[in-house]
Amino acid sequence: MSEHSRFEKLVSDAKKNITEISPQDAASKSRRSEAVIIDVRDKDEWDEEHIPDAIHLSRGTIELEIEEKVSDPNAVIICHCGGGGRSALAAESLQKMGFKNVRSMAGGFKAWKAAGLPMTN
To answer: What does DSSP assign to residue 50?
Structure first.
């Protein structure tokens, strides 16, 4: 089994334990201040372009830093990455930490861009 397929299996297992949300639903929840969007991509990806009002917490530090940014365990948190893999893992991890309303954005930032939703840099 290659390293890449091991990652894909990890993501596929995580997706069984989390709820995904479409970019359109994520955008409307963010606009209505019903959710916090967390970008778990690396800093260079964030610096290139990102979702307005998103919070950047890279995949490597999200567990360490999440409580500084989101203290309410009932807050709706929508994680996203480039394509949906890293955010599924992050969402699963936040659920294990006791956050009750975590979502992973299906298709990640690529899907957000493809849907023509707003971006900033």
So the answer is: B
Dist. CA 30–CA 121, nearest whole Å: 18
Phi, psi of 102 (to 5 degrees): -95, 140
pTM above 0.90, yes or no: yes
Single out the catalytic residue among 14, 81, 89, 105. Answer: 81
> What per-residue string of b and e applies to 82-106 under the rule 16 or more CB within 10 Å gives b?
bbbbbbbbbbbbbbeeebebbbbbb
Task: Give 19-75 pLDDT, tens digit per residue.
Answer: 999 999 999 999 999 999 999 999 999 999 999 999 999 999 999 999 999 999 999
Active site residue 81: yes
Residues in the chain: 121
